[in-house]
Amino acid sequence: MLADGKNQPPKPSLVSRILSVLIRAVVLIGFLFVFDKLLPSISEQTQSFVVAKWQQLSLLQQELPTENSLPSPLPEKNLTDTWGAARSQGRSHEGIDIFAERGTPIQSTTQGIVSKVGENNLGGRVVVVVGPGGAGHYYAHLEDYADIAPNDWVNQGDIIGYVGDSGNAKGTPPHVHYGIYINGSAVNPYPLLQKD
Question: Do residues 178 and 105 share a domain?
Fold first, then answer.
């Protein structure tokens, strides 16, 4: 008996506690089932978002590319250091140009997450892959894209597009402009690429 003279309420029996847990579990499973069946695209988008964020965190913890650590985006094609060359409107070249036949497949130099598949004024059709250390790998003047989309994971050597002359390269010999951006600033990719 309590100090105020009232009896303590009886404890629920084991059976009623088990029944209560089972009812809650059934309701939760039912809710998850309905959520999964009625909103599959949201479920897939949420899963894709979580996986992409996990991959981004993993990439950020990896080392930035170092000298001679990256394969060429166009294997067996001649590499020339065109970094810093004069460009129109007083600009300087923030990458290197690698020439090849129109439609030659362009390979990702690194594993990473596709952050852009689209167009811009100078680069025309471009693809950007965020790789280890958060470095952005920029491929421009593409003729066409591979079957990729933003947030896709690519491995080193995967095809990301095809050599062309889009953007301000229209009418020039087909090539890929390859650039690397670290902390938002362009760095010369030539020393980072392996030479045959």
Answer: yes
Query: Can you tell me the distance from the alpha carbon of 156 to that of 132, in angstroms, rounded to the nearest whole number?
Result: 11
pTM listed for this prediction: 0.75
Is 182 within a domain?
yes
> For residue range 119-173, what is the model confidence (pLDDT) as tens digits?
998 999 999 999 999 999 999 999 999 999 998 999 999 999 999 999 999 999 9
Contact 131, 181 (CB under 8 A): no
Give one DSSP letter per residue of 18-32, joined into a string. HHHHHHHHHHHHHHH
Q: ∠ CA 158-164-169 to the nearest 5 degrees?
A: 130
Helices and strands per DSSP (H, E), number in the chain? 2, 9
For residues 35 and 93, state if they share a domain: no
Within a domain: residue 40?
yes
